[in-house]
Amino acid sequence: MNILITGGTGFIGSVLCSRLLEDQHHLVVLSRHPETLQSPVQGIGSLSDLTDAMIFDAVINLAGEPIVEKRWSDGQKQRILRSRLDTTQALIAYFTRIEPKPKVFISGSAIGYYGTGRTNESIDETGVGDDSFSSQICRQWETIAIQAQPLGIRTCLLRTGIVLGNGGALGKMLGPFKLGAGGRMGDGTQWMSWIHINDLIGIILHCIEHDGIQGPVNGTSPHPVTNQQFTEALGKVLNRPTFFSMPGVVIKLLMGQMGEELLLTGKKILPKKIQEAGYTFVYENLEQALADVV
Ligand SMILES: NC(=O)c1ccc[n+]([C@@H]2O[C@H](COP(=O)([O-])OP(=O)(O)OC[C@H]3O[C@@H](n4cnc5c(N)ncnc54)[C@H](OP(=O)(O)O)[C@@H]3O)[C@@H](O)[C@H]2O)c1
């Protein structure tokens, strides 16, 4: 297949590209630094670099300013939002003008879609959002992406959870945990809906291959855990104590709204649609997933 990817240089995108290359697909990656991409991947700096002769079977949209790198100042919030909306809007404009159109469009989103309120209720793809910044970004991002559907392109909105892989959120946590200074955040009762990176890639491939899947798809494991359970599992896998805890008030002071929305709240998200579509998870158990990654 010919596949166009945005964000193909990132934490998730680079693993995805390696997997797709193993399967002999031809990849074009849209990047702000196309010169860094190496053959056989073709890098482009703009969608206008694509000729009419280039026909894509699938398009995967993962580009965006990192959400957890910096404090959410007004300027940073705009960068987070605009980087996603502008890339997605450019893809929709591209889809409108090309023929034949791709068969499938997988566009990134996040479980932040479901908002920040505290609840122990399980949430599937029918869940709704709220006024939090995370929920607003995802709603606006998805509202643009879904415009590909009436153009005749099957569109999946990948509501990704906390991805466990070599880097990402786990990469940031590992330092203190390895030093024996890891511990729960706040009261530890907030849910962490995690997924092993290989399963996220598996879900993307499953969405490409199965014509019946469209709309929102939760990219999370079937067994979300609380922050307290996650802390204990990571300590056990690393064989390190986890006595410390970071009080919520300190997290709010250090990280502001970002810490409040991403670290101190979290919902129990279930991957109902992809399981009903026949995807079998490789990593359902958190300790196994962590042991594989660390
Ligand atoms: N990792 C997770 O746990 C997680 C969880 C939920 C949702 N997601 C979503 O899944 C997508 C991929 O995640 P990731 O962790 O792989 O992302 P990432 O590594 O932070 O970034 C993906 C790519 O986005 C491009 N990018 C970065 N800043 C940009 C900007 N200001 N404007 C335009 N493009 C920019 C970069 O590509 P170039 O440098 O090549 O341009 C980068 O390689 C993201 O949209 C993220 O929000 C991730």
Give an overview in words.
With 294 residues, this protein is of the alpha/beta class. The chain has nine helices and 15 strands. It has helices at 11-22, 74-97, 133-145, 168-178, 197-209, 227-238, 248-262, 272-276, 286-293, and strands at 2-6, 26-30, 42-44, 58-61, 104-110, 122-123, 154-160, 162-164, 183-185, 191-192, 194-196, 215-219, 225-226, 244-246, 268-269. The protein has a seven-stranded parallel β-sheet, with helices on both faces. It has a two-stranded parallel ribbon with strand order 6-15. A two-stranded parallel sheet has the order 8-11. Strand 1 (2-6), helix 1 and strand 2 (26-30) form a beta-alpha-beta unit. Helix 1 crosses helix 5 (197-209), helix 2 packs parallel to helix 3 (133-145) and helix 6 packs across helix 9. The relative contact order is 0.14. The mean pLDDT is 96. The protein binds NADP nicotinamide-adenine-dinucleotide phosphate.
Looking at this protein, list some descriptive labels:
294 residues; 7-stranded parallel β-sheet; alpha/beta; binds NADP nicotinamide-adenine-dinucleotide phosphate; 9 helices
CATH architecture: 3-Layer(aba) Sandwich
Largest sheet: 7 strands, parallel
Q: What's the N-to-C terminus distance?
A: 33 Å
Low-pLDDT windows of residues: none
Strand-residue proportion: 15-25%
Strands ordered across the widest β-sheet: 3-2-1-4-5-7-12
Structural class label? alpha/beta
What general form does the structure show?
Answer: globular
- What number is the mean pLDDT? 96
What is the helix fraction of residues, given as a range?
Answer: 25-40%
Let me know the number of strands: 15
CATH superfamily: NAD(P)-binding Rossmann-like Domain
Number of domains: 1
What order do the helices and strands follow?
EHEEEHEEHEEHEEEHEEHEHEHH
Total count of helical runs of at least 4 residues: 9
**What is the CATH first-level class name?**
Alpha Beta
Cα radius of gyration in angstroms? 19 Å
| CATH topology description | Rossmann fold
